[in-house]
From TrEMBL:
GO terms for biological process: cytochrome complex assembly. One of its GO terms (molecular function) is oxidoreductase activity. GO terms for cellular component: cell envelope. It comes from Taibaiella soli. This is TlpA family protein disulfide reductase.
Length: 209
């Protein structure tokens, strides 16, 4: 590994993730990186990689307390457009599942959550909603699938991927939890059977505060 390749890695990381960071904290770590970069021998990269980990964790920690974007999405049930940050009830925790009609694990996750929602809401007062990342031409598929599954919670579509870009995620299933103050405090990509229980544990913790 050369110094040049490490530098390129850090520059790309900064450009892609800096919007989620507190700049003073980010700048401090960035300055430490360059001080170390010019002082170490090319054969000793362990400390540089440790700083990379520190930088990544710092940025991601701030990413998970981010303000909700005002990006417009569409309510598939009634056809109305609404700002994403206006879909949340103040003072109540909300879980958002991002999915797509072609995503099998997404459908499995939402199905499992829906089956448990009634019991969960006896333990914690929270809201649940979904956002499809399908293209606009698939809106009918989103609607028909939601109705076939008996969804009784809000479901939206991010047809132009504007919200996806605002939240800076690449793949679905993607789940976020928004706390009572309207901050994103939890993000997770992917789904394994039973993974919804981890989400609900976080919901109970936040709802009790």
């Amino acid at each position: 590994m050369s110094k040049e390749s490490v530098a390129v890695f850090f520059i790309n990381l900064m450009l892609n993730l800096k919007k989620f960071s507190e700049f003073r904290t980010f700048a401090d770590i960035w300055q430490d990186f360059w001080t170390l970069f010019y002082s170490v021998n090319i054969t000793d990269m362990k400390r540089i990689l440790a700083l990379a980990t520190g930088l990544f964790l710092t940025v991601m920690a701030h990413a998970q307390t981010a303000e909700l974007p005002e990006t417009t999405i569409k309510d598939v049930n009634n056809g109305k457009k609404v700002a994403f940050n206006q879909t949340f009830e103040k003072g109540k925790v909300t879980v958002v599942s991002f999915w797509a009609t072609w995503c099998v694990p997404c459908k499995k996750e939402i199905k499992n959550i829906r089956e448990k929602l009634t019991d969960w809401k006896k333990e914690a007062d929270f809201n649940y909603m979904t956002v499809s990342i399908d293209e606009s031409r698939a809106e009918g598929l989103v609607r028909s699938y939601a109705k076939s599954q008996g969804w009784d919670f809000p479901y939206y579509i991010d047809a132009n991927s504007d919200l996806k870009r605002s939240l800076n995620f690449q793949n679905v299933p993607f789940t976020i939890i928004v706390d009572k103050t309207g901050k994103v405090v939890f993000m997770h990509t992917g789904y394994e059977e039973g993974g919804e229980e981890e989400v609900f544990a976080k919901v109970k913790e936040l709802s009790a505060k």
